Amino acid sequence: MDQTRCCSSGQCAALAPEVFDQRDDDGVVILLDAAPPEAVHAAVRDAALACPAAAILLDP
């Protein structure tokens, strides 16, 4: 995750709230879980694909 690229759209927090949140002051993404359980992997992939700034990078 690259906070400097984040445009605060909130797609990641909406799609994977267990893994992503947003700072209250500017809406920049906050990573809540760097190694989420497999049950949310699909949601994390969807969040990465939906990010308009391509700020979310996934390890294979």
CATH class: Alpha Beta
**What's the arrangement of strands in the largest beta sheet?**
1-2
Please mark out the parts with pLDDT under 50 across 5 or more consecutive residues, or reply none.
none
Terminal Cα span: 14 Å
CATH architecture, by name, is 2-Layer Sandwich
Residue fraction in strands: 5-15%
H-E string: HEEH
Beta strand count: 2
Helix/strand structural class: alpha+beta
Count of domain modules: 1
Might you state the CATH topology name? Alpha-Beta Plaits
Q: Given the structure, what is the number of helices?
A: 2
Mean pLDDT: 95
Using the alpha-carbon principal axes, give the shape.
globular
Helix content: 25-40%
What is the C-alpha radius of gyration, as a whole number of Å? 10 Å
Biggest sheet descriptor: 2 strands, antiparallel
What is this structure, in a nutshell?
It contains 2 helices and 2 strands. With 60 residues, it is an alpha+beta fold.
Detail the topology: elements first, then pairings:
Layout: H1 11-15, E1 20-22, E2 29-31, H2 41-50
Antiparallel strand pairs: 1-2
Please, could you describe this protein's structure?
With 60 residues, the protein is α+β, with helices and mostly antiparallel strands. The protein has a single domain, classed as Alpha-Beta Plaits. The protein has 2 helices and 2 strands; from the N terminus they run αββα. The chain has helices at 11-15, 41-50, and strands at residues 20-22, 29-31. The chain has a two-stranded antiparallel ribbon. The longest helix is centred in the C-terminal third of the chain and has 10 residues, at 41-50. The protein starts with 10 loop residues before the first helix and ends in a 10-residue tail after the last helix.
